[in-house]
Amino acid sequence: MKKISESAVRRLSLYLRLLQEADAAGAETISSGQLAERGGTTSAQVRKDLSLFGSFGKRGLGYSVHELLGRIRDILGLQRHWRVALIGAGKLGSALFSYRDFEARGFEIKAVFDRDPEKVGTALGGLTVRADEEMDRALREEAVEIAIVAVPGEAAQHVVDRVVKAGVGAVLNFAPVRLKVPRGVTLRNVDVTLELEGLSFALNSR
Ligand SMILES: NC(=O)c1ccc[n+]([C@@H]2O[C@H](COP(=O)([O-])OP(=O)(O)OC[C@H]3O[C@@H](n4cnc5c(N)ncnc54)[C@H](O)[C@@H]3O)[C@@H](O)[C@H]2O)c1
């Protein structure tokens, strides 16, 4: 597959949401204009994004919702379920765990780890929080593919090093630190403060 920019992948996710809604509403076709509006972009950009993956749609008729939905799911790797571990069952970790939409979208949390003895052994949803000493072995046993890191900043790099060593190929990090991962491992950082600063900028430039 051709190399695709991170922003194009994000737009695909946004197109996917709209396609799912259109499908649920019984729509058969969708225009590049509708997709553009949802993706915060132009029709030309939509056509460019989709042309990266082959030819879809017919001029004047729009895209087949069903076909495009299947194709975008394929491209994003969403035709299967991913095995996820959560590390850090604190305030944020527990909130993330209780968000059921992840599972509905194909991301199944298979294990939760924490190092606080008060939390280890307690139930979180249908799982039991496991001790962080068990993590290295358990990540392999559970064949975890994605790790969500919700530990304090000072613990995050060590946690990520262990996760990577256990064969996990992708990390979603919430800790407010810059982490290093080896080539071949994908790291995404989530920072709500960054988004708030974006809002601050928008308000400030009014
Ligand atoms: N990205 C964002 O926008 C955002 C928002 C809120 C919090 N955060 C960050 O998320 C992280 C968690 O925040 P919180 O409010 O849930 O904190 P918290 O203190 O409630 O939870 C952290 C948990 O990590 C556990 N932990 C610590 N070291 C560990 C280790 N080595 N292995 C396993 N577990 C370990 C602790 O026992 C605790 O249960 C922090 O780094 C915080 O700065 C980020």
TrEMBL record:
Pfam families: CoA_binding, Put_DNA-bind_N. This is Redox-sensing transcriptional repressor Rex. InterPro entries: CoA-bd, NAD(P)-bd_dom_sf, Rex_actinobacterial-type, Rex_DNA-bd_C_dom, Tscrpt_rep_Rex, WH-like_DNA-bd_sf, WH_DNA-bd_sf. Residues 77-178 form the CoA-binding domain. Homodimer. Residues 14-53 bind DNA. It comes from Longimicrobium terrae. GO terms for cellular component: cytoplasm. The keyword Ligase does not apply. GO terms for molecular function: DNA binding; DNA-binding transcription factor activity.
